[in-house]
Amino acid sequence: MGVDAxxxxxxxxxxxxxxxxxxxxxxxxxxxxxxxxxMTLAWRDVKLRYRQTALGAVWVVFQPLMAxxxxxxxxxRVAQLGGGPIPYFVLSFAGMMAWGLFSGTVTKSSTCLIxxxxxxxxIYFPRLVLPLSTVFGVLIDFAVSLGLMAFLMASFRLVPPxxxxxxxxxxxxxxxxxLGIGFFAAALTVSYRxxxxxLPVVVQFLLYASPVGYSLEKxxxxxxxxxxxxxxxxxxxxxxxxFRWSLLGMAPPPPGLLAYSAGFAFVVFxxxxxxxxxxxxxxxxxx
Length: 287
Description:
Layout: H1 2-11, H2 28-33, H3 35-50, H4 58-78, H5 88-110, H6 112-115, H7 117-122, H8 129-155, H9 167-191, H10 195-208, H11 216-222, H12 228-233, H13 235-248, H14 255-279, H15 283-286
Helix pairs in contact: 3-8, 4-5, 5-8, 5-9, 5-10, 5-13, 9-13, 9-14, 13-14
């Protein structure tokens, strides 16, 4: 009896792998159990990104600085959207910081599955680990840009307001929208590779359609009333304005717009994650 009991115990599997249901639970506990893999993949992406670059991490600040300079000329001087106590270059750079957090997460998470096809097809692990691992590199880029922003604010003698304590909240909501879109796009890219070519075009269009290089208040003043709905329907508008409000002490966004953006972030994140889990069963076969 003792031998049979030991044999039966040894034959009991420690892990049972079953295909997820149509609306399977996200099973975040399983993702937490694979946190070591998540951190390994995150560090690998950071190392590979700058391994063969001459300037290395300089590109992290060079790109938003160039974009902020272009926005200062186009929107600040040509379109006359400047004015106010905040230097326009600082305003644009703050917008690019928030935008980089969003666009970097969308771009990297949407291609994470096809970029790790060898892992997806051969090894079992919760696939949500792959898009989540891309956030770490984006946050490192953001931290570098934040250091440069601190230098710019000190140069212009700008003191951050008490609302800066809310900055992580707006960062989290931006990441939730980006990950929700990234989850869905990554799952679609496995079967439809056209997504990886279409998505950057959509993101680039969204850059100019969002108050990144200009404030929402100035845009509403310059544009006819019939165009106001376009900015109010954009869920990024409230979060970008809230980001600059917390960082630079600019005018706060309307509470209704901010509530709409926050609700949109939660809905998109949940729908994207569940859609990812629903399509996950076919990843290894199709990729």
